[in-house]
């Protein structure tokens, strides 16, 4: 029997990492209060120094990373980084219209699909070059290409434990969390340095950053319009998880792993529904502003909680080769996303 591996804490959109029973508010309270206080501190800094709110939330969250190991904080931080993130994504739909979404397709959709598939292939090729298995390359490359930790869990279920063991999965979760946090900090700086427009930056950030919270946060740290584009692009990648899993079953037939349910996450559907309502129904200004304020607060709180929970110490003692697969896939995704942004906008 294989030894049980405790997964590192990471963004978990699908309830895969921590499928615990619902917690009481008394259990959620301490961690949620800490995340809320970190968000308010980030808001104060952002208002007084004209700094991006989500970037400040991430930095303050990382500064409070030592609290992530406190057991009584776990439930509240999990709630903030998971549940608030989902509802924040839904409410972002109040900032977007169907016309904006339609304006990005079909060429942008085609570019996103190509970037996803090439990034996944890059993970496989990098793994084989480093002497690792094809399945591990598909796991690492797919996690980078789609939606980070949640994609890694879904991919591991499809591949089966005979091909990808628990230790390898845990390593990918750690590496993806670290890479996504790093990307959220540096990618907007790159976009500013090379002079990308809002639309170009939104495409680059939404198509290259690993986890949903960091991709959306990076977009809004560049500008509001970049954040809207990044949200649409990132959620398109999330929606592509189901067909990618179906594709992998052709290359890796079932081998004892549980059959993965292929479906679009509810928060992705909710985002497009809210955007559709915003497009066809006259929404009172006060409701629109309130929804946008809540979306900003929820996303900033989710980013702060993710920073607090980031598994910084878990990277110590891991081998370099598996992490190089993630780095190689991330570099390919960034390069292709940058090229697509320049060509399409």
C-alpha geometry: globular
Number of strands: 0
Main β-sheet description: none
Helix amount: over 70%
What would you say this structure looks like, in words?
The chain is mainly alpha-helical. The protein starts with 24 loop residues before the first helix and ends with a helix. The chain contains 15 helices and no strands.
Set down the secondary structure blueprint.
Elements (H helix, E strand, L loop, with lengths): L24 H25 L3 H11 L10 H19 L5 H7 L2 H23 L4 H12 L3 H11 L6 H28 L4 H11 L3 H11 L1 H16 L1 H11 L14 H15 L4 H25 L10 H25 L1
Helix pairs in contact: 1-2, 1-3, 1-14, 2-14, 3-13, 3-14, 5-6, 5-15, 6-7, 6-8, 6-15, 7-8, 7-12, 8-9, 8-10, 8-15, 9-10, 9-11, 9-15, 10-11, 10-14
Give me a quick take on this structure.
This protein has 345 residues and is mostly helical. The protein has 15 helices and no strands. The chain is 72% helix and 0% strand.
Q: What are the key terms here?
A:
345 residues; mainly alpha; 15 helices; 0% strand; disordered N terminus
């Amino acid at each position: 029997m294989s030894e049980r591996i405790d997964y590192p804490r990471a963004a978990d959109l699908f309830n895969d990492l921590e499928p615990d029973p619902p917690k009481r508010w008394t259990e959620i309270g301490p961690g949620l209060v800490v995340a809320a206080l970190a968000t308010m501190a980030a808001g104060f800094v952002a208002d007084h120094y004209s700094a991006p709110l989500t970037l400040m939330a991430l930095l303050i969250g990382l500064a409070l990373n030592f609290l992530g190991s406190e057991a009584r904080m776990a439930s509240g931080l999990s709630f903030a980084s998971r549940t608030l993130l989902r509802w924040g994504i839904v409410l972002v739909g109040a900032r977007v219209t169907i016309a904006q979404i339609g304006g990005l397709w079909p060429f942008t959709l085609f570019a996103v699909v190509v970037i996803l598939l090439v990034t996944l292939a890059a993970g496989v090729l990098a793994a084989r070059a480093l002497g690792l298995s094809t399945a591990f390359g598909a796991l690492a490359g797919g996690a980078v290409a789609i939606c980070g930790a949640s994609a890694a869990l879904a991919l591991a279920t499809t591949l089966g434990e005979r091909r990808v063991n628990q230790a390898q999965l845990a390593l990918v979760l750690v590496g993806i969390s670290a890479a996504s946090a790093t990307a959220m900090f540096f990618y907007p700086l790159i976009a500013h340095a090379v002079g990308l427009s809002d639309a170009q930056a939104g495409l680059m950030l939404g198509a290259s950053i690993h986890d949903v919270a960091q991709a959306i946060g990076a977009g809004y740290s560049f500008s509001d319009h970049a954040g809207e584009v990044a949200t649409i692009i990132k959620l398109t990648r999330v929606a592509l998880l189901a067909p990618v899993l179906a594709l992998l079953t052709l290359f890796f037939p079932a081998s004892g792993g549980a059959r993965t349910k292929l479906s679009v996450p509810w928060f992705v559907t909710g985002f497009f529904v809210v955007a559709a309502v915003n497009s066809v129904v006259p929404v009172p200004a006060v409701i629109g502003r309130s929804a946008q304020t809540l979306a900003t607060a929820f996303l900033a709180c989710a980013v702060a909680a993710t920073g607090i929970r980031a598994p910084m110490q878990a990277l110590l003692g891991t081998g370099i080769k598996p992490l190089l697969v993630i780095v190689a896939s991330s570099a390919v995704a960034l390069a292709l996303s940058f090229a697509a942004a320049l060509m399409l906008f």
